[in-house]
Amino acid sequence: MTVLGDDLFPTTAWRFLLPDPDPKSIIHLGRPVDGVKPLQRQRFSSNDTADLVMTSSADPGTLKRAFASCRPGGACFVEVEPSTRVFDPEGLRRALIDAGFASVRLYSVSEAPDRQQPSWWVPLDSKPAQRHLLSSQGQRRGRSGMARVVDRVTELVSNRFPGLLIRAPWLLLPRWRWRVCATALRPS
Fold it and tell me: How many Å apart are CA 15 and CA 8, to the nearest integer?
């Protein structure tokens, strides 16, 4: 476990998802979350709590430790890179709720192979955001006729099967890296 200082906040653009984008204390559990470079490590007791707890593991034991390490009213950020080609994000939501968290929000995060930062964050609870993403993919300029046909077919299939983008985003952009992120709050 690592305690991160104020100057070690993640470099990625996800802190706007938190209720407090500048937490005073952060505890990190497990392997590093993308964009977080802990330079300062401190030991802490199991009784210590923080404003933000970050983890890249969705296993129930880690999420229970995250809940215990999160102060009342604090936030938890989970980033999972699914190891399977089809992923059920509702399982992540249930695991966070079972650990004691509330107000769980899920996001599909995608980044192009040539980029260091995510290209988009799509809230998985927002059908309009998902539809906008699909329609904007079909309207990209400079696409060949066949690529536009593939974009349109992807859009039609996703409209017919609404959960497809959530469970198998690689169908939309197979070479892109994608992951699922969640924010959750510990009730006060």
Answer: 13
Residue listed under structure tokens 């709720």: 97
Domain limits, the chain: 2-123+175-185
Query: Cα–Cα distance between 91 and 88 in angstroms, integer?
Result: 6
d(CA 54, CA 26): 7
Contact 99, 60 (CB under 8 A): yes
At 132, which amino acid appears?
H
pTM above 0.70, yes or no: yes
For the record, the structure tokens of 28 come out as 């990190």
Spell out the CATH class of 2-123+175-185: alpha beta
Burial class (CB in 10 A: 0-12, 13-18, 19+), 134: buried
Report d(CA 112, CA 173) in Å as an integer. 9
What pLDDT digit, counting tens, does each position of 45-92 carry? 566 789 999 888 888 999 999 999 999 999 999 988 766 555 677 888
